[in-house]
Design goal:
- The complex is a heterodimer of chains A (113) and B (111).
- With 113 residues, chain A is mainly β.
- Chain A is built from no helices and eleven strands.
- The mean pLDDT of chain A is 94.
- Classes of the chains: A mainly beta (113), B mainly beta (111).
- At the A-B interface, strand 4, strand 5 and strand 10 of A face strand 6, strand 10 and strand 11 of B.
């Protein structure tokens, strides 16, 4: 099976802009989670979607949002970008429910100037 | 909320030496525990997972981890390090539908 894919792999934006990142899960996986990785804060959970519904959300401002489509593909959006949003954004997919193994994509590296 | 502590942000070993990366968790009940590895400019790759089926878990690339409830530990070991093992390693615990990660340990392997 193909793994989790994320597009684009690299992105450069300026402060105040918005950005949309895309994630395609492993075929058959219905849960998609997003994480932010920074040198200062490490790996932090953003949100998790299942069957087009957000089931869990981490402690991030409302500028961070996401959605999931009927084919389980997911997008996350960050509006009004700040310098501190520069990070590696990782998407992970799993079959269902807590305890299931999450498989990660290669990530999208976002640089905000 | 659960937490994961990884002792040692950097570990250096010689090629062929034992690798020991430490992880302690805070849960009062046996959790789902994971070790992931991250190579430069890549995502996270699953090494192994503990699900209470067995306390000694074998993973990929010769790694294994032992779950010790009395010590709330889940340390990662490999008998003989290889140059290709140089990477960052993350221990994580599952809390519901969220993975809570440790701060990571960067492993350096010297020839």
């Amino acid at each position: 099976k193909a793994g989790v894919t994320q597009t684009p792999r690299y992105l450069i934006k300026t402060r105040g802009q918005q950005v949309t990142l895309s994630c395609s899960p492993i075929s058959g996986h219905r849960s998609v989670s997003w994480y932010q990785q920074t040198p200062g804060q490490g790996l932090q959970f953003l949100f998790e979607y299942f069957s087009e519904t957000q089931r869990n959300k981490g402690n991030f401002p409302g500028r961070f949002s996401g959605r999931q489509f009927s084919n389980s593909r997911s997008e996350m959006n960050v509006s009004t970008l700040e310098l501190g949003d520069s990070a590696l954004y990782l998407c992970a997919s799993s079959l269902e429910d807590g305890g299931e193994t999450q498989y990660f994509g290669p990530g999208t590296r976002l640089l905000v100037l | 909320a659960q937490s994961v502590t990884q002792l040692g942000s950097h570990v250096s070993v010689s090629e062929g030496a034992l690798v020991l990366l430490r992880c302690n968790y805070s849960s009062s009940v046996p959790p789902y525990l994971f070790w992931y590895v991250q190579y430069p400019n890549q995502g996270l790759q699953l090494l192994l997972k503990y699900t209470s089926a067995a306390t000694l878990v074998k993973g990929i690339n010769g790694f294994e981890a032992e779950f010790k409830k009395s010590e709330t530990s889940f340390h990662l070991t490999k008998p003989s390090a290889h140059m290709s093992d140089a990477a960052e390693y993350f221990c994580a615990v599952s809390e519901g539908r969220e993975l809570i990660f440790g701060t990571g340990t960067r492993l350096q392997v010297f020839p």
